[in-house]
Each structure stands twice: as C-alpha cells, then as structure tokens.
Amino acid sequence: MIIYVKNQDFPHRTFVLSLSRQDKVARFRAHLLHILYDIGKDDHQFKLRYKGEMLRDADYLGDYDINDNAIVSMIPTDSQMERIYSLMTLASQPSTIDLHTGQPPNIKDALNQEIKHFDKREKYLSDFKALLYINTLVILMAVLTVYWYSVAWTGLLFLLAMLFVPTYTRIGGFVGSNTHWRKYYCVLFNIGAVICLAIALYFSIITWTTIVNHGCKDWMFVDDCSHRQVFSAVLYTIHSVLLIISTVIVCLLLVNFRVETGDFIEKYLVQEKDIEKVVIIARTGRMKERRQAAYDLATLAASSNENKLLIAAEGGLQVLETLTLNKDSSTQESSLEALGELLIVPSIQEIFLRSGGCRSLLTALNSPNQRVMYEAANALYTIVSESEDNKQALIQGHGIEDLAHAGREGKVTCQRVIAGILLELTFNSEIRAQLSSTNTLVEVLTELCKSQDLDTKRFALQSLELMAIENCDLVCSQDNLIEILLDIPLKTLDEKLYLLAAKILMYFTENIETCEQLLNNTSIKESLGLFARSENPVQQRVVARIIFLTLETRSLKIQAIDMKLNKILEYIREHPADRETWDMADQGLSLMNSEDDLSNLPTLTTLEKLKKMETTHGFDTSSSATADSINSSDSDLKKHV
C-alpha cells in the first residue's frame, strides 16, 4: 500500500512510501531515515502520528488501521526554536543543555550499514549489466566460430536476461514491474548460465585439445590448427570466464536482495530497554536524553500492564509528573502520553491522585502547545471516567478554570476530550451543585456548542441539559445560547442533537423574559419546524411543549401567532409519531384558536379526545387502544404538557 508522509519542517515535500499492513512502525521510520539521509537531513529527529495517535515502533501498521493512501504526520522533536532556546540558556545551564542533535549512535551505525549494503547492490547491478553487453558481443562473435550454432541457446539466455534484468538505484529503489521477480530472475539466470558455462567449457577444452594435438607446426594455421579453430578456442575460453564472473555477481546479488530497507535499523528501534535505566536517564539526563527517555517510557507503558507497574515501582510516576512541567514541549508531550498510559491501572491512578498529581495535568492544560494540551486532557479523562471519587480531585483549586481554558483554546480533538470530561463531571449531582454557583462551566459549554465536531457538540449539549436541571436561570442567562440552539438544525442532520437542543430550549419557556427572547428570534419557526419533522415521539412532544408554553400570557400568545407557530403544531397533528403527540398538538392549536391563555385552557374528556382524533386523523381507537386511552386521566395529560 502507498502511504503519504507530511512534515511541517518540509512544507514543500511529501514523502511517499510503499509498505504493507504487516510492517512494523519501526520499518516505516527506517524508510523515512533513508529519505532524510538522501536529502542531507539524517539528523532530523521525529515521531509519527496518525489520526491524533502516536505510532509505536514495536507495533504493526495494521494495529492503527493504516490503509492504502493514508496520510501520516511526521512530527519533529527537535525544532529550530528548541535549538535557539538551548543556545540562549547555554551560559546559565551548561550541564542540562545538549546541543548535539541527531539519531542515537546505534541507529546511525545501522543506517550507514544499510546504505553501504544498498550501494553495493547498485554497483553489482551496474557491473552485471555491463557483463550482459560484453557477453552479447561475444555471442555475436560466436557466429564466426566452429560451433556457430551455440548462438541459439546462449543468445536466448542473454536476450531474456537483458529484457528482465532488475533496475535499482539506492535513492530511487527498484524500478519496473520485473523487479518483483528479482530473486527468481537470479536463480533462473544462474541455472541457464551454468548450463551455458558447461557447454562453453566443453567447446573450449575440445578445441584446445584438437589444437594441441595438431601442434600447429611452424605456426602454420591449417587443418585442425586453422585460424577459425584458434579463434573458437580463445572465444569460448573468454566466454567461460565471463559466464563465471556473471554467475558470481548474480549470486552476490541474490544474497544482497535478501536485505530490505529497515532490516538493520528495525531491531535497534524495537529492542527492549531497561526500565530502571530509562527512568534514571529521565530523572538526571540532559535535555535530549530526557526527551528520548520520556518517549521510551511512553512506548514501554503502552506495550503491557507489566511495564506500567515496573515503571511505577522504579519511581517513574514522580519523574513523569516532573517532566510534564519541562520547558521542552516534546518532553512534555511524551511524559503526558506516558502518564495517560500508566493511569489506566487503578492502583497507579490512586497513588497519582494521592500525591496531588492532578495539579500538574491541569497546569499542562494551559500550555500553548496543542499536543501537550491534548495529552493532558486525555490523561484527565482517564481519571474522571474511572471513579466518582476522582472527580472531586479535578475541581479543587482552579481545575474548572483550567478545563475552561483548554475548552476555549484547544483544537477540535482537545475540545472533544474536554467536553467529555465536563460531561463526566456534570453527571455527579454534588459536583453539579458546586459548579452551578459560578458561570465558568456554563460559559465554556456554550462555547463548545459552537464546535463543528458533532461529538463535542453532543457532549456539551448533554452537560448543559444537566446544568439546566440544576440551575435553569444560569443556563438561560447565557448570551447567544438561543441562537446557537436554533442554529443546530440549520447546520446538521443529527437528530440526537435536535432532541438535546430542543430540550434545552424548553427551559427558556419557563420564564416570561427568556420566552420573549426566544420568540424574538427570527429563525424560531424554521428551526422548530425542522425539529418537528421527526419520527421520534419524544422530540415532537418537546417541540409541542415549547410552543404550548409560549402561550402562557396573552402577549406571548399573540407573538407566537404572529410567528405562525401554529403551522408547526398543525404539521405535528398531521404527522404525529403517536397519539399523545397528536393530543398535545391539538391541545396547543385549541388554545391558539381560543381567546383564553394557558391558565384558562378548557379540559376535554378522554372520550371527546378519542372521538376528535378519529374524525381528524383516523387513528384506530378500538379495543385495547381505546381501553388504554380511557385509563389515562386529564391530570396525566397535563403532567406531560
């Protein structure tokens, strides 16, 4: 499959690689190291990311669902700004700055070894092609020999050899469709060459024997010592030598072809590391060493639960917590990623919370680096989703302010995680009561409702609904929230979002002032009309209830009629999802057409309602359906309204 690689350090270059799903990420990185070497950037340090997930060297591409034509991001870990920072701080902190950049020595050695190997491959193929041309010339000259008919088989062999010879350069790689059969080519050529060599040696020996037996007395080139005989002996001797050399080179090529890009580098990238040594380096190493150690810890933590426990046992939890505050953004990101992996284990999570580690994660949410912010949010989500007790630790101090900052400043992926965290918090009634005393949470949820990401929008709407249950006035006091909610059906087709938005809009009708704001919005008819065009009975009931509650006073009723909200009720009555929905729409239309307001709404008996439904919409109200409806009381209906 073809994979495209983009890198912000090389904006005008897109690297194209050919790999398979069974290849490891380490081999992917090895291919990129070769490309960087060819453009003179072999010291460039990088990580690979696909769909927001960091790729681990020991994993396979298939583990990340990387398919044909995928685009993978190449993230530099040693940017120019970091080198400038190192130069600026060299005088004050000489012991903690490492200006040496590039790949580790063992990786560099393996890369150089592969390059030498592929240079030899290119040279062998170049020499072999030259031999093919020389052999072809010799074959053409064989027409003048005693055994001129040998041109038939040797000519066929070398004609096919020239047609199907592989083409390779170290920079360009193999070219052409024939290169897929290069190993078979080598084997078949050697078989044919050995047969031709045996025949050529036979002709050479026979010819030389004849010449020696004749003696060529007085250098007279006649009979068995003719010029043609001598020419034949010399030519087949030369041909035999050329065939031997060609066979040897093809054997070398066959061995060389067994090595693929990354065979030497991969084993160093995926080799097991000593966790104790990595933790020590992360604690006491220099900037570059800490960066690499943080990345190694993240890789080790992701590989198994056993490694997670070993890292925690070696004091890695405290080291990683310290590295989350490091000024190097790459170190921060890797350490947060490692923490996110470690916190999956409940026992490690408990130790982390007991030591106040949540504070460092919340601090990281204020980082200007988007990836650092995202990794910190991921780690926090792991904490709040595991236990109700963990949620209190998150809102202590300025936790909500930090989450709100990340929700406003983060990109789409970060906002999605933050919205998930806030939803987890609002599920807890005690925390919800605490958060309802300030405006911070509801403000950031309102901002998140503007997101183009459907998951982020859904989480934010669910949280707002829960907050409205706790403190309706706080939610209804948010500027532009009505416009955001009414705008949802105009920008998306997700009916789940429709229902959530409609439920929150219902809270605006409980207060005359906010109800007036709702009716003053010009898009209310269009939006409620789209909300009503659903087969979900709950959604239709919510729309009918919103319109019903706008009829509470005469002034609101007149405004609702002016906005032609009765058309929406008529649509619901004509296309009801169930009988209760029909009843609510009909009740609302009755009120709109009457001179009374909601407080003077006339009450119909159940039998009157059923009779009206039969005549208006043709519902089947016989047998059990009628019995169920009769059992419903007027108080039940008002309760639903």
Explain what this protein looks like in three dimensions.
By secondary structure, the chain is mainly alpha-helical. Among the domains are: 2-80, Roll (Ubiquitin-like (UB roll)), CATH 3.10.20; 113-264, no CATH class; 479-602. It is 66% helix and 5% strand. The protein contains 33 helices and seven strands. The protein has helices at residues 25-38, 80-88, 105-141, 151-164, 182-214, 227-256, 263-269, 275-284, 287-303, 305-313, 316-323, 329-342, 346-354, 358-364, 370-386, 388-395, 399-409, 412-426, 429-435, 440-448, 454-470, 472-476, 481-491, 495-508, 512-519, 524-532, 537-549, 554-562, 566-574, 579-593, 606-617, 623-631, 634-640; strands spanning 2-7, 14-18, 46-50, 53-54, 70-76, 167-169, 173-175. The chain has a five-stranded mixed β-sheet with strand order 2-1-5-3-4, with helices on one face. A two-stranded antiparallel ribbon has the order 6-7. β1 (2-7) and β2 (14-18) form a beta hairpin. α18 packs parallel to α21 and α29 (566-574) runs antiparallel to α30 (579-593). The longest helix has 37 residues, at 105-141. Mean pLDDT is 80; it is low at 79-100 and 598-641.
Average pLDDT, to the nearest integer? 80
- Report Rg: 40 Å
How can the largest sheet be summarized? Answer: 5 strands, mixed
Q: Which regions contain 5 or more consecutive residues with pLDDT less than 50?
A: 79-100, 598-641
What separation lies between the terminal Cα atoms? 59 Å
Overall form: elongated
Approximate helicity band: 55-70%
**Percent in strands:** under 5%
Output the structural class.
Answer: mainly alpha
Number of helices: 33
Strand order of the largest sheet: 2-1-5-3-4
Q: How many distinct beta strands? A: 7
